[in-house]
TrEMBL record, chains A, B, C, D:
Pfam families per record: GFO_IDH_MocA, GFO_IDH_MocA_C3
Gfo/Idh/MocA-like oxidoreductase N-terminal domain segment(s): 14-141
Name listed for the protein in its UniProt record: Gfo/Idh/MocA family oxidoreductase
Ranges where the GFO/IDH/MocA-like oxidoreductase domain occurs: 152-283
Superkingdom of origin organism: Bacteria
Record organism: Dongia sedimenti
N-terminal signal peptide: none
SUPFAM superfamilies reported for this sequence: Glyceraldehyde-3-phosphate dehydrogenase-like, C-terminal domain, NAD(P)-binding Rossmann-fold domains
C-alpha cells in the first residue's frame, strides 16, 4: 500500500507556458492542475486570452510575471525563444482552430508542445503539422486524457498480451446530454465555441467522438480501415452535429460501432468501451474508472481493480494510491502530463524516453482528424463505407 | 402489498396443445410453465416431437392422454378440430421453419395460435400467414416475451404519454456469448438447429436481433423506416451470421443503432434498451428487469421499481409480487400467455379484448421478418440503406 | 441451455388444501403460485377466511368445490381426514398466531404441513409442536423462501466445501421501509395484523429478522451461540418493534451483526448477506438474486451467475432457465414447494427424500423462535448477551 | 461546465514542513499531493524520518534545502520558529504515537498543525492537546479526509436542512481485507506499525473505525451518547483488534451500527454510510464517491451526482470538474488541505474563516479518541453500554 511509480521532483521542473486558459475557460485549469499534480512542471508564461485585460488579470491570478504575459502566441513564442530562461514546453488549450497555428509557432521556436484535442479543424492542417513536428524532433503530446487511466492501460496490455485472443468486436460510445437544448444561444461560452464550426471544426464528432475513437484504438491496438456513418443535428439551428452513429471496420477484420451524442438525456460523460475477442472480453466505464470487467471465456467474470494485486505493471506505473481509494479524471489527465514530462526530460539529453512511457502523439492527432473527415464524408454521401486515409 | 391484476381461475381454463417441446427441447418447457403460472391454461394434446418414441414418452411425462399425442401437427389439427373437447389453442415451439406450416394448419382448423419467434424463415411466408390469420379472426400471439416485463410496459406507457418529449435516439442491443466457439459441431441441439439456415432462417439476426428490434419498437412506439447493416460470421464454418451491427432510421426522424451478437464473451442475455427524447431518457436492462432508469432532463436520475408507488398502471396490471421481491423471465413470459388468454376468452363471446390487453401479434411477426430481410439485404449489398417493406 | 432438474409431472399431483389466503390476503396467492409452478400440487380444499362469505367467495374463485370449503381449520382437518380422496398436505398461510394450532390439527390428522414463517408467536408453542411433528413422521416445511434461491444454495455449498476456509464474520440485514409511517392506523390489512403483537408475536424481528437469521444460518452452516440487541419502535404508538440491531456470536467463534428494519426509507426487500472466512468472502443480494459475488483471498472478485458453468450442482438442481434470463422470488418460493413435494412423495413409500432435497423444517422454526425470544430478552435487559436455548 | 470554487494562487503560498513521510512511508506522499493540488502550499522543511540517512535522502528528493531537513520534530520546531522565513504550518504524518508530542512542539512554536488521524494513542493525551490548541488560537486540522468528498458535504447539508426529517437510523461500515493474514510478520512496514499497539494505540478501531465514526457524525450532525461493542482479533498472534462490531446510540434517540474490519476478504476501502430519517434516506459509498443515493419517502430513489445541477452549494464549493468526470480520494483529501489553507490565511489577519469553510478539528480528534476508548472498554467489560466522555 504505497504510492508507486511517482517521484516528486526527480529533476528540475519543466518550465512551461500556456496558450488559452484564461478567465472563463474550462480545460485550461484542468491542464494546470494535471501539470501540477506530480510536481514536474512550473507555469511561468502565458498568452491566456485574446482579450488583453483578461490575459493580464488571468496571468496575475496565476502568478505569472507581468513581462511573461503575452498578447498572443506568436509574441510569446518569439520572446520565450529569445530568453535564456525561456519555457521548455507550452500547453495549448484554446478552441480547436488555434491548435495548429499556435503549435507551429512553438515548434518552430524549438519548444515542446502539449496540445488539447482534436488536433485541428481539418485533416490537411494536421498532416502538415505532423511533418513539421517529426522534422523537429520535439515532443508533441495530444491530451487524449482517457488513455491515462490506469485500468485503460491495464486493458491495453491485456489485449497486447493476447489475453483476449483474436479481436472480433469493438463497441465504444461517448454519450453526454449537455447540448440537449440550444444553450449555445444563451451565451454559455463552452457551448458557443464548441458549436461554431469555424472554431471547433465539428460538433460531437470532434469534441467527444475523437475521444471514443482514440480510446478504442489505444486499447485494441487496432487501426481503422473504414467507417460508415449517420450524422445528425437534432437541435434546430445548431451548426454542427450533435449525434453520430458509426459502423466501424478495423484492419484485420474486427467490426464495431461508435456512438457519440451530446443530446442523450441522462448521460454526463458516459464513455464506455467494450472489446471482445476469441478468448475473452473487456468492459470499462469512464465514470467508474478504477474498475475493469474481465470476461475470460467459459469462466466467471472478474472485477479487476486499480492498485490491487490483479493490476498489471502497465496500470501500476500510473497508479498513485491503493485499491479502494478511487482515482479520477484529474489523476488520469495528470498521467498524460507526467508521461510527457518523461519524454521532455529524455529529450534534454537527446534520448528517447523509456518504452513504458506512453502518451498520445501528433500521429494520434492526425488519425483523429482522418476519422472525423471520413465520418462526415460517409454521412454526407448518404451512408457509404469510407476508407481512412491516415 | 398485494398481488395485483391476477385472478387465479376467472373462467374455465383454456385447453391447449403443443407442437414441438418434447424431450431435449428448451423453449417448450418455458411455454408450459408460462401457461401454467396464472392457471389459465391446461395442456391436453401434443405433437411434441418428430420422433414417434420421443413424442410418446414426452406426452406421457406431461400427462397428455395417449390418444391425444400425435405424430405430426397436421394429424393433430385435424383430430382436435374433430373432437368435441378439442383444443382451443395451440402453442408452436418448434424450430422456425415449422412455424408457418403448423400455424396454417391450426388456423385453418379454427384454433388460436401462440407461436414462438421469429415468425418464419422468410418474409413472404410471413405475409401469407398474416392474411390467413386476419381473415380467420383468430387470436395469433407471437412470444416476444420481453414485452411482458412490467417495467417494459411502464417504459412504453411513459413514451406514449409524452414524458420523453419527441424521440431522437434509440440504442438497443442483445449480446450473448454462447456461440463464441463452433459448438454446433459438438452436437449441442440448440446450437445445431439455430445455426442451420434451413431450420432457423438466419443466425443472431433472427434468434435475438428480432427480439431487440421488437423491444425497441414496442417501447418507442416507432416504426422503422430503413436499416443499414454490417453482418458477420466470426466463427469459421458457421452457416449463419453471429454478429450484426445495424444503423436504424425510424419514421419521424429518430435514429438508432442495434447490435446483436452471439460471440460477445461475457454476455449471457444482456438485452439493453435506451431511448432518448427532447425531455428525458430511459434505460432498461433485461438482466435486472425490475428496475427502469428514468432520466428527466435537468433533474436527477430516478430509479423506477416494479411494484412501487412509482410504477404506472401499465406495469401494475402485469405485476404479481411487491417491490423488492424480484420477478423474472418466466413471469414476463407468463404475462404474454395471460394476455393471450384474455384475448382468447374475449373471442369466446366474439368480443375484442380490453384495450389494456397487449401482446405481440402476427403483424409484429411480419415486421420482424421484414427487419431480418432488410438487414441481410443491406449487408449483402455492401452496406446500403434499405427500406423496410412492412 | 435447457431447463434442468424439473419434471413436469413425475407422479400423481399432491392434492393440498389451504388455511388462510382468501380475499385481501397477500402471501396465500404467492403460496398457490409457488405450488403450481412445477405442477406438483393441486388445490382442492380450503379454510380460506374466518369470514364465511369471504371463504365461500374465495373458494369459488379458486375452483375449490363447495363441499371442500370449510369454515375453520378444525372442521377441515376432520373432514379431509375422513375423505378417501382427502388432502395429502396443507398450506398454512394465516397470521402467525394461527400457525401452531392449525398445524397441530393437521398433523394429528396425518396430513403433511407447509407453513409460513415465523413458526409461532412464542418459543414454548414452537417446541411443543416440534415434538408432535417429530413423533408423527410427517413432512413439515417452513417457507423460509430465500433458501430456495439457486445462488443461495450455491453459497451454502461453497461454505460447506470449505472454499471460504474457517468462517470469521457474518453480516446480514433485511431493511424495508413500508412501515415508516403508522399505516396500520389506516386500515392497511397487512400492516394491521403484522403490528398487532397478539396476531404476529412481534414486529420486524419476527416478520423479517427471522428471515435474515435463517438465511445466515443456512448459508454459513453455523449455529448461533448468543445475541445482544438494541430493539426499537420508532413509530409512535406502534405496538411492536420496527428496527432491530443485533450483535451475533456463533458457536465456533464467528461474529456478526444483524439488522432488520421496517422504517429504513428507500429499502424494499433489501436482504443482503455477507460471509467472510480465512480464504474468501461471499456477498448476495436478494434484489439481484441471480448473482453471487465471490471474493477469493488475494484474487480478483468473481461474479457467479445462476445457470452458468460456474454454478455448482446445488444451484443447478433448483434452476429452471439459462443464465441471463433472471429467475426471481416466485421461482425461489416454488423451489421450497418442489423440495417439499419430493419429501411428501418419498413419504408415500415410507422413504426419506434424496439427500439433495433441502427445505426449512420445524427445527428451523424452533430456532427462529429461540432467536426472537433471545433478541427481545437481550434488549429488555438493557443490552446483555443472551444464549440461545434452541 | 467550469471548475468552480478554486483560485490557483489567491495569495502567497503557505510554506509548510512535514514530520514523517520519508522513504517507504505511505500517507506522507498523499499529504504532499493534497497540499499541492490547489497550489496553496509549498513544502520547505521536514523531519521526514527518524533515520538520519533516510531523512536526508528524502528531503533532497523532495527539494527541501539541506539546512531545513531536521533530525527530529523538536529541532525542527525550534529552528523554524527562529527563522524569519520559518514555516507557517506543519503536516504531521507519523505513526500515531508521535502525533501528540509533535503537535505540541509546533503549537508551542506558534505553527499551525495539519495532523493525520487518529489524534493520539489515548484519550487523555488528546484532551491535553485540545486545551493547548484552543489556548493558542492556532489552526489544527485533523485529516479525516472522507469529509472532503463533495457528495459527503452534500449529504451533510441535506441532513442539516431537514430533508431527511428526524433521524432514526445510522449504519456505517469500513471493511478492508489487507490484514486477513498476519502480514505484519513479513516485515510489511504499514502492517507492522499499525498492528503495534505502542505505535498505533489500537487496530481496526483506530485506523479505520474512527474514520467511520467521524463520517457518520459529520453527515448526521449527531453526537454519540453510548456504544456497546464486540471487539475481536481473528488473526492469531496479532496484538491489536482486527474486527469490531458496535451498536450505537446517538443523543436524541437515533440508533445505529458500526462495523470496521481488516479481515473481510474482498473489501478494499469499502466505506459505506447510510442514514435514515422520517422523511428520507441517504446512502454513500466511498468507492463510488461521486454518487449519492437519495431516497425521498414514497418517491423513486434519486441519484445525485457531483457537479450536476442537483448538487448543492456545499458540494459545489469543493468541486473541481464537471459531472461524469470522476473526482477521487486525492481530490477529497486536497479539499481538507484547501479548507485548512483558508483558515490559515484568515488567521494571518486574525480573522475567522468563512462559515462555509469546514475541516475536522482537534475537537473531532478528541471525540474520536473518546469513541475508541468507549468501544474498547465496552468489549473488555463483556459487552456493556458505555457512555462517551467527549
Amino acid at each position: 500500500m504505497a504510492i508507486t511509480g511517482r517521484s516528486d521532483k526527480a529533476e528540475g521542473k519543466i518550465k512551461y507556458g500556456m496558450v488559452g486558459g484564461g478567465e472563463g475557460a474550462f480545460i485550461g485549469a484542468v491542464h494546470r492542475l494535471a501539470a501540477r499534480m506530480d510536481d514536474h512542471y512550473e507555469l511561468v508564461a502565458g498568452a491566456l486570452s485574446s482579450s488583453p485585460e483578461k490575459a493580464t488579470r488571468s496571468a496575475k491570478a496565476l502568478g505569472i510575471a507581468a513581462d511573461r504575459s503575452y498578447g498572443d502566441y506568436e509574441a510569446m513564442a518569439a520572446a520565450e525563444k529569445a530568453r535564456k530562461d525561456g519555457i521548455e514546453a507550452v500547453a495549448i488549450v484554446t478552441p480547436n482552430h488555434v491548435h495548429v497555428p499556435a503549435a507551429r509557432a512553438f515548434i518552430k521556436s524549438g519548444i515542446h508542445v502539449i496540445c488539447d484535442k482534436p488536433l485541428s479543424t481539418n485533416l490537411k492542417d494536421a498532416i502538415a503539422l505532423e511533418k513539421l513536428v517529426k522534422a523537429s524532433g520535439l515532443v508533441f503530446c495530444l491530451t487524449h486524457n482517457y488513455t491515462g487511466y490506469p485500468m485503460v492501460r491495464h486493458a491495453r496490455q491485456m489485449v497486447a498480451d493476447g489475453d483476449l485472443g483474436e479481436l472480433r468486436i469493438v463497441q465504444v460510445e461517448y454519450p453526454q446530454d449537455w447540448l440537449t437544448e440550444p444553450i449555445e444561444k444563451t451565451g454559455q461560452k463552452q457551448a458557443a465555441w464548441r458549436t461554431d464550426p469555424k472554431l471547433s471544426g465539428g460538433g460531437a464528432i470532434g469534441d467527444i467522438g475523437t475521444h471514443a475513437h482514440n480510446l478504442a484504438g489505444f486499447v485494441s491496438g487496432l487501426d481503422l480501415d473504414s467507417v460508415l456513418s449517420d450524422v445528425d443535428t437534432f437541435v434546430k439551428g445548431r451548426k454542427v452535429d450533435d449525434n453520430v452513429n458509426v459502423l466501424l471496420r478495423y484492419k484485420g477484420g474486427a467490426k464495431g460501432m461508435l456512438w457519440a451524442s451530446q443530446v442523450a438525456v441522462g448521460n454526463e460523460n458516459n464513455v464506455k468501451l467494450r472489446v471482445y475477442g476469441t478468448k475473452g472480453g473487456l468492459e470499462w466505464h469512464q465514470e467508474h474508472p478504477n474498475h475493469l470487467h474481465w470476461f475470460p471465456y467459459g469462466q466467471p467474470p472478474q472485477l479487476l481493480t486499480r492498485g490491487s494485486p490483479a493490476a498489471n505493471a502497465a496500470a501500476g506505473r500510473v497508479t498513485r494510491v491503493p485499491p479502494g481509494h478511487p482515482e479520477g479524471y484529474l489523476e488520469g489527465f495528470a498521467n498524460i502530463y507526467t508521461e510527457a514530462a518523461a519524454a521532455i526530460r529524455a529529450a534534454r539529453s537527446k534520448k528517447k524516453p523509456d518504452k513504458a512511457v506512453i502518451f498520445p502523439t501528433i500521429t494520434d492527432g492526425v488519425k483523429g482528424m482522418a476519422f472525423i473527415e471520413a465520418v462526415l464524408k460517409s454521412s454526407a454521401k448518404g451512408g457509404k463505407w469510407v476508407k481512412l486515409t491516415a
